């Protein structure tokens, strides 16, 4: 049995833990769960800390449960939120659950015969037939309103700052989550719930229900909420969440997010989001501090996590795509990019449309550079640039007699124009 608490402590993944948890885990194989919000059909990187906790738990010889909050997803968790969330119907929840299971299976072993194989559970399965009267009689009477009001997640929503106030539905959230813990304690011998530090109040309500109703002992552990050194929100880009689903966030964008991490954050994240050993990380950190311009930590972090979430092939493609802007890539490299990655790489680059029929007939490069795209203000300016050998089409230098045709299309729909080293223009063929 590996010491789980020791492992997550040196990795900076421990915020709060109930006394006695470490000893409890070292006695024998234990069962723990993390709740996952099923409001989308993909996890985003904000979920990853909880998933990594479950993986370390499994690697330590224990059994992890991933709880998809089908019932709680229908209510909305008030923790850290200023408004209620949209409530979902059952078919949507089931679809989201299956998508999340597929993503979790990249991290957790669900399929082996090992005693500590992971399980996915959905609290909707045990809450759907629980009547309101049964719930307030069997669960509600054991927790006082005073106890519930003392929780930070409730107090914050009841302050004068929160104009919306808090509905009764949300107020009962901690009871429903607490009952999940009680149910899993009885049904799966689960004695530990883990989550973000904002979940401490909800988790300890569960330990209290286990004590009062089942006369048992349960434990709580939370990890810090991940922050960025510059104060901006972790897991967000200008386009919104960084998702694990490649259809929502391309592997290239995913890779770039980690590659662009600051030095301070990279030192923290490489412990949390990879399974590299303490020795490897210390060695890498030392080398990084000696030569920070090489960005060794960021590169290794981005590589490890892109392979883990996507694949080695996706990583290779993301690295190739990254080199297109900064390296000596060729026309063939460009033509290997899929549409989504191409558009991600050249996001923000000016674009113009040209009819496919015109490309099929062939258009001379001066017309393309000026009249069709306004990349240059005049034919004379375009001609001078061509004479100076500073114009490239799809990374290959062209002269004044060049004619653009269908053989130059990337993915049958794009052409990349370039003037000098850094001025790009995308032609979209329609």
UniProtKB/TrEMBL annotation:
Motif 'HIGH' region: where in chain: 38-47
The entry's keywords: Aminoacyl-tRNA synthetase, ATP-binding, Cytoplasm, Ligase, Nucleotide-binding, Protein biosynthesis, RNA-binding
Gene3D superfamilies given in the database record: HUPs (3.40.50.620), RNA-binding S4 domain (3.10.290.10), Tyrosyl-Transfer RNA Synthetase (1.10.240.10)
Residues in Tyrosine--tRNA ligase SYY-like C-terminal domain copies: 344-427
Highest taxon listed in the record's lineage: Bacteria
Compartment(s) where it occurs, according to its Swiss-Prot or TrEMBL record: Cytoplasm
Binding site residues for L-tyrosine: 33, 173, 177
Recorded GO CC terms: cytosol
Chemical reaction(s) catalysed: tRNA(Tyr) + L-tyrosine + ATP = L-tyrosyl-tRNA(Tyr) + AMP + diphosphate + H(+)
Motif 'KMSKS' region: chain residues: 233-237
Biological function: Catalyzes the attachment of tyrosine to tRNA(Tyr) in a two-step reaction: tyrosine is first activated by ATP to form Tyr-AMP and then transferred to the acceptor end of tRNA(Tyr).
NCBIfam families linked: tyrS (TIGR00234)
Family (UniProt): Belongs to the class-I aminoacyl-tRNA synthetase family. TyrS type 1 subfamily.
The name this protein goes by in its record: Tyrosine--tRNA ligase
Lineage summary: Bacteria, Pseudomonadati, Bacteroidota, Flavobacteriia, Flavobacteriales
């Amino acid at each position: 049995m590996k010491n789980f608490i020791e492992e997550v402590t040196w990795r900076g993944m421990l915020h709060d833990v109930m006394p006695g948890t470490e000893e409890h885990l070292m006695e024998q194989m234990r069962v723990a769960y993390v709740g996952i919000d099923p409001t989308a059909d993909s996890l985003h990187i904000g979920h990853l800390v909880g998933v990594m906790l479950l993986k370390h738990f499994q690697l330590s010889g224990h059994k992890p449960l991933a709880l998809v909050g089908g019932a709680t997803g229908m209510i909305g968790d008030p923790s850290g939120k200023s408004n209620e969330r949209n409530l979902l119907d059952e078919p949507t929840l089931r679809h989201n659950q299956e998508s999340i299971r597929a993503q979790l299976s990249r991290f957790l072993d669900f399929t082996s015969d090992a005693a500590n194989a992971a399980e996915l559970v959905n609290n909707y399965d045990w809450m759907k037939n629980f009547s309101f009267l049964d719930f307030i009689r069997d669960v509600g009477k054991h927790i006082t309103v005073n106890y519930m009001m003392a929780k930070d997640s409730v107090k914050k929503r009841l302050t004068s700052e929160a104009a919306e106030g808090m509905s009764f539905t949300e107020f009962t959230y901690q009871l429903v989550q607490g009952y999940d813990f009680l149910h899993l304690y009885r049904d799966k011998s689960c004695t530990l719930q883990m989550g973000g530090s904002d979940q401490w109040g909800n988790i300890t309500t569960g330990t209290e229900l286990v004590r009062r109703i089942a006369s048992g002992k349960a434990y709580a552990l939370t990890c810090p909420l991940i922050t960025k050194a510059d104060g901006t929100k972790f897991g967000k880009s200008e386009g919104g969440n960084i998702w694990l689903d490649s259809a929502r966030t391309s592997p290239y964008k995913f890779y770039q997010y980690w590659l662009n991490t600051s030095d301070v954050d990279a030192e923290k994240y490489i412990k949390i989001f990879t399974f590299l050993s303490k020795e490897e990380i210390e060695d890498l950190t030392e080398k990084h501090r000696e030569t920070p311009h090489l960005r060794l930590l960021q590169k290794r972090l981005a590589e490890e996590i892109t392979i883990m979430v996507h694949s080695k092939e996706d990583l290779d493609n993301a690295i190739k795509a990254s080199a297109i802007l900064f390296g000596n890539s060729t026309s063939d490299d460009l033509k290997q990019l899929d549409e989504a990655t191409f558009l991600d790489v050249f996001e923000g680059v000016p674009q113009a449309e040209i009819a496919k029929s015109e490309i099929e007939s062939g258009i001379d490069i001066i017309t393309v550079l000026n009249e069709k795209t306004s990349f240059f203000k005049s034919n004379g300016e375009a001609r001078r640039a061509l004479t100076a050998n500073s114009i490239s089409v799809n990374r290959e230098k062209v002269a004044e007699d060049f004619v653009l045709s269908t053989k130059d299309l990337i993915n049958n729909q794009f052409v990349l124009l370039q003037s000098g080293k850094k001025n790009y223009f995308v032609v979209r063929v329609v």
